[in-house]
Structures are given as structure tokens and as C-alpha cells.
Amino acid sequence: MAGTDKLKVIQNRAVGSRQLTRREMVRRMLAGAGAGAAWPLVAVSHPIYEHLMNGEVFDEAEKLGAADWKPVFLNTQQNEALVTLAEKIVPGSTKALVNRFIDLLLSVDTEKRKKSFTDALEAFEGESQKRFGKGFPSLDSGQQNELLSDATARPAKKEAPGSDEKEHTGVHEHFENLKGWISGAYYSSEAGMRELGWTGDYAFEKFPGCEHPEGHS
Questions:
Q1: What is the Cα–Cα distance from 8 to 19, expressed in whole angstroms?
Q2: Are 86 and 182 in contact (CB under 8 A)?
């Protein structure tokens, strides 16, 4: 098969029939990709990359599926907004408990990064209210797609007075921040890794591209 010679196979002798933890999955994936590899869709400079590399809270991540789970850092409204945004940006995020993992990471992060994250959520909520008179989770799919589509574009340069060129919203940087957290959380989950081609028996030398025909704005 073409391209198979580019894959570095790492035999997994310890998997057996047990389920791997997130820590083990991330370690195996990084072992195959190399220490200098960038996580899929996440810039090395993004805060979540640091969390993925050191894995300090991964053990706590195994408890995120508890039926009585409650956010540690986010409030109810912020968590609801994150769930909705995450599912639109990376389909499958809800099932992968992306919001819960991000909440856990933020709970041990710096005050500056916490504020940056909540500011990003508030920016989307503010833009949603401004355009449609309701919060992002309450928008219909078309409205959510419209807002996200504009958010992916960098703000247009200011033109001369009287120019009718449409300016993009000012939420682009906030979108990039949220996308990094959401992508990192999803692609460090079992669902995300399997989407990339991880089977538990080997890791790729380079991360393959992800495939979400309807997502990844």
C-alpha cells in the first residue's frame, strides 16, 4: 500500500484486552510522532499543548465520565456554551467529553489563561446576542454556522470612509483560542486518536490529517 513505508510501527506489548488511559494513549501517539511534532490542529504555542506534553492531570481525566460530574472551573452557562461550540467545531466532541477535559485543564491553569478562555466564550455569546438576540446554544444550525464561518476569517482591514466592504467580526482570535483547546481535548481522547488512525497497536510517525466533512471550521 502506498505510503506505508512512511509509518513507523511501534508494537504495543502491554495493551492486552484492557482499555488504555488517556495518558497512555497520548504517550504512545507522541512516541510515534516524535517529541517535536505538533498535535493535530493545535499550535505548539497554544496552552493546551503544554498540558498534553506533561500530562499532569491525565489521571483525573479518567473520572470525567462520572454520572454526577460537575464543572470545576466553568459555570453552568459557560459549560453549555462550550459544549455547543465544541460540537460545531469538532463533531463528536460531546461524546468525547471535550468540555469536561477542558474544564479540568483550566482548573489547574494560570489566571491569565483562564481569563483568556472565558473572554473567548463571552465574545461568542456577545456576538450571538448582537446578531440574533440570543445566546449561541439557542441559535439554529444555520445561524451557528454563519457566526462560525465569519469567525474563521481574519478581521478585514479598515477601508476608507464610505467603503461598503463588509468587515468580519472581531472574534477571530477568540475562535482560534477555543479551537485549539477543543481540538487538543478531542484528539487526545480515544475517539479522536482512532479517527487519526490509531488502533492501539501502532502510532504514526507523522500525524495523519483528520477528516470531518461537516466540521473543523
A1: 23
A2: yes
> Rounded to an integer, what distance in angstroms lies between the CA atom of residue 99 and that of residue 158?
36
Q: In this structure, are residues 115 and 74 in contact, taking their beta carbons and an 8 Å threshold? A: no
Distances (CA, A) of 122 to 57, 77, 118, 181, 204: 26, 10, 6, 15, 37
Under 8 Å between Cβ of 195 and 91: no
Distance separating alpha carbons of residues 91 and 186, to the nearest angstrom: 9
Neighbours of 185 (CB within 10 A): 30
Per-residue pLDDT tens digits for 102-127: 999 999 999 999 999 999 999 999 99
pLDDT in tens, 38-66: 566 677 788 888 888 787 788 888 889 99
As given in the structure block, the three cell numbers for residue 159 are 477601508
Taking only Cα atoms into account, the Rg of the chain, rounded to an integer number of angstroms, comes to: 19
Domain spans of the chain?
4-156+166-195
Residue 43's CB is within 10 A of a number of other CB atoms, namely 15
